[in-house]
Amino acid sequence: xxxxxxxxxxxxxxxxxxxxxxxxxxxxxxxxxxxxxxxxxxxxxxxxxxxxxxxxxxxxxxxxxxxxxxxxxxxxxxxxxxxxxxxxxxxxxxxxxxxxxxxxxxxxxxxx
Length: 112
What we know:
- By secondary structure, the chain is an alpha+beta fold.
- The chain has one domain (9-92).
- 24% of the residues lie in helices and 25% in strands.
- The strands form 2 sheets. The protein has a 3-stranded mixed sheet, with no helix packed on it.
- Helix 1 runs parallel beside helix 2.
- It is globular.
- 13% of the residues are buried.
């Protein structure tokens, strides 16, 4: 569905009564390199221009710990991948449904 060089994503089309939803699931590793980050940013841009879909829904774990989604801020330079990701998020997408951390890694005191 979506030809991409981004390393980890899964895409499908969901038929609904009044159109089609382009649905994507993405995972960005915390060890993602600059090249993979560029591919992610290009993928986000491309999804917003896909023809034939009434809606686009992207879910995932983007692993940008320096982004404060609640306040729309990044603790990093304007050219950092996280800053560029947040700008794309604000330009192309209307909603962020996850405003807090929902899962914790192994060895942490909080449950998964």
